[in-house]
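(Deposited chain)
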Amino acid sequence: MLKVHSRCNLACDYCYMYEMPDQSWRFRPRRMSREVIEQTAARIAEHVHAHGLDAVEVVLHGGEPLLAGVEHLGHVVRTIRAAVGGAARVGVRVQTNAVLLDERYLRLFDELGVRVGVSLDGDAEAQERHRRTPDGRGSHAAVTAGLRLLTGERYRHLFDRLLCTIDIRNDPVRTYEALLAWGPPTIDFLLPLANWERPPPGRAPGAAATPYADWLIAIFDRWYGTAPMPVRVRLFGEIMHLLLGGASTVESVGISPAATVVVETDGAIEQGSALKAAYPGAPATGLHVARDRFDQALALPGFAARQLGVAGQAARCRACPVGRVCGGGHFAHRYRRGTGFANPSVYCPDLFRLITHIRSRMQADLRGRAAVGRVAR
């Protein structure tokens, strides 16, 4: 994940970059320099060749990556692909708030095969709750203008996903249908970035209530009850895959090792940016692309803790009947002062209820299919 620009043109009140304890963005360059781009490209190529990889995924991120400008983003992609050469496929995705998304950017992304993910929290009311400009103006009109261009006939093949941060005050089904109306290949629902020191809105730490599970279950039942399923909802799909014995591809559930490093605008190599919600310096490693290989990050305690699978979970999680599916939840959601990340997720009751609900629906379907099979025989 490359932080190509460290500032943003929105001031979302839940943002981990600007509203959470780690404020390192204040001391970093606004835009990744060409020197850092070239150093990063060399490190990616080095990693590809050292491990014989046939593919690597690069996410252009921020802040807001489109603030870097059309020419600069083109230079980033071309430099990385030139460094890797024909050794591996370099897939590139940009995650944007879409306020600046226009024909110039879409022509570039079409030329370079860059997939586009857009952050959108639902309909206008849901979007305007949090995702506003620094002077308080709403962003829904600008975002939907960008989305109309992206989802038109010329550029729809670039559309990668919609990313929605959950607010339990918004009606869940209405939120889902507002996102579905854009025809995204994938919808990502994200639990608000929170931990035991900064609990999520509407959830008292340790309380038995499950407001976030209830919100997601309303969407799951609508989605699961539609044949064929109209969109991939990544959280639901990952949980179902895990329940059937598969491995996760995301950090929010499951016990698969963390597989992403972040390069900041100044070239610092960091852990996942969500750790900024824990404490100042939580994502820092002390590594830099000018002198350090990406492999060196794996030797650091923070990264190593996220490679341990079940052994890296809290004792309560290891004893839980859905512990391997939940995985203890997102690493950033486990933080508590004094015990660090050796805790269950602050969303533990919600995750348990959501997973067991999905399991019950799947089990009922499987029993029904077995009964039909017996009758047919």
